[in-house]
Amino acid sequence: MTSQDTTAAQERLARRSAVHQLLCKASTAPGVWSCCNLPFAARADVYKHIQSAHAVKVQELARDIILSGDVCSSTPSPVSDFNKRRAPKGSSDSVSLSCSCPAKSGSVLLFYKYVKIEDPHVLASQQQDLCAKLELSGKLRISREGVNFTLAGNMADVHKYMQEMSNSPLLSDCDLGTSSADWEKRRRIFFKPSEGCRHVFDGLSVKVVKEVCPFDASYLPKDLVAPRSFRPSTHLSPEEFHRAAVHAQLNPDTHIILDTRNYYESSIGHFPSAHCPPIRRFSSLPAYVSANKELFEGKTVLTYCTGGVRCEKASRWIGENVPGIENVFMLDGGIHNYLEWATDAERESGPSKETVRSLFRGANYVFDARQSLASASATPISDCTACATPTFEYTKCSSPGCHKIVIACAGCSSVQSLFCCGSCRDRIGLSGSVPREWSCSCEMDRRKRLLESSVA
Fold first, then answer.
1. Is-contact 29 290, C-beta < 8 A?
2. Which one of 100, 117, 298, 361 is most buried, by most CB atoms within 10 A?
3. Burial class for 311, CB neighbours closer than 10 Å (0-12, 13-18, 19+)
């Protein structure tokens, strides 16, 4: 690299650092920014605004950074395979599954644990080797704050993985060993196995990340990475959550149910009367809650998500940052374990027992090619965009560069292109690539709904 190349690289790094400084100053809450009396709900939007409206300030800051010697070296530092992007930029995971595996030939695990990890890269290497040996696929996220894993394989290999992990130091305080009287039940609750083959994922992805589920890297309650026996009792079992949710529906003045997932997840399934924020990323949840504090003040808050990992942080953050809240609880094991409990409870109902019916409506969105999980008695709450047939199924918008979910039955998605909105449909046939800053009309509407709350 020539000296001229080095200077250019340093200038780029300095400008990037300068924009980042202004970005931090513009932040009013996690996921929300304000600059020049304009509100922003997307990082890309405020980033672009700063670059154009404050170009002179950016240049001045960049010059100061270079003169101070704080700009990083232009020589790229080695990047571990565990830190690289999982897929090419602009791409997204498949939401359809096509394989010849028998329906019950394999299993998919979904589990997490907040625990202090001294060297995430060492654990990542160990997990890479173990999963490769057992021919497992999936997504494994490891950080200094813990792990968030979902993986799949045939029954025998998944069982070997659970056995290996149950006896590992990482899960030593979870009491998953065979010495426990109810070890099989404890493992089922912790690992959350469900039907599915190894093809539900496009291979194996092991990554070292800042957070196991992106929320706010600066927020990590000390008790969260402590052994479970030292944590405050905020978790409700599925049965306890069921009773609390029934009470909440009957008493909306004193209780509120909050769905901490993204809007496209709740669109195919949620608890009745739950507040479902118009967020596309978990990191935007604090902004939604902060803008709608009046909904939560003086109430008991019941939170839920897919498997529990998001609620661990969300419930604590709400309790610490929203004044006047009575209590904050989370559904232990998430929707997954609730549906498992409800299925068992319905099966065991009889003349001598109280009849139990699942409160959850629709299907539980999952981040793999199976799309969703639902009980045998569940009925869809969403309709096909094209023919209005009730369905759990979905596809992705056919517009290049748009990866938004479009509710679509199998019949419609297999024979026609489907779009999330008119602006994406109108882009078909246009020449040139999609500009980075471009957003379709339904995405702009979503951001507007979030901003209307944020500036209220």
1. yes
2. 117
3. buried
Quote the tokens at residue 297: 């003040």
Q: What is the pLDDT of residue 226?
A: 67
Q: What is the mean pLDDT of each run of 10 residues along the chain (456 residues)?
A: 59 77 70 76 73 84 74 42 61 68 87 93 93 94 95 95 94 83 90 92 92 83 68 83 96 96 94 92 89 90 96 91 89 96 79 76 93 89 93 88 87 86 79 62 82 55
Residues found in the chain: 456
pLDDT at 74: 34
Residues annotated as catalytic (active site), given as ranges: 305
Is the Cβ–Cβ distance between 438 and 444 less than 8 Å? no
* Of 144, 167, 96, 75, nearest in space to 371 by CA: 96
**Which of 141, 135, 298 lies closest to 208 in space, CA to CA?**
141
CA distance 422 to 418: 10
> If you ran DSSP here, which 8-state letter would residue 290 be given?
H
pLDDT of residue 23: 74
Bridge partners, residue 441, by sequence: none
Distance of alpha carbon 428 from alpha carbon 451, whole angstroms: 29
List beta partners, residue 383: 390
Element (H, E) at 330: strand 327-331
Left, alpha or beta for 455 (phi > 0: left; psi -120 to 50: alpha)? alpha
Contacts 24+ apart (CB under 8 A), 221-230: 221/313, 221/316, 221/320, 224/114, 224/145, 224/312, 224/313, 224/316, 225/114, 225/115, 225/116, 225/145, 225/146, 227/173, 228/173, 228/174, 229/173
Exposure letters 151-181 (e unless 16+ CB within 10 A, then b): bbbbeebbeebbeebbeeeebeebebeeeee
Cβ–Cβ < 8 Å for 245, 359? yes
Phi/psi of residue 402, each to 5°? -105, 125
- pLDDT of res. 73: 39
pTM for this model (two decimals): 0.78
Distance of CA 158 to the CA centre of its chain: 23
Query: 86-97 in b/e burial notation, b at 16+ Cβ within 10 A?
Result: eeeeeeeeebee
Q: What is the pLDDT of residue 53?
A: 84
Tokens coding 156:
């025998």
- Rounded-to-integer distance, Cα 216 and Cα 62, Å: 26
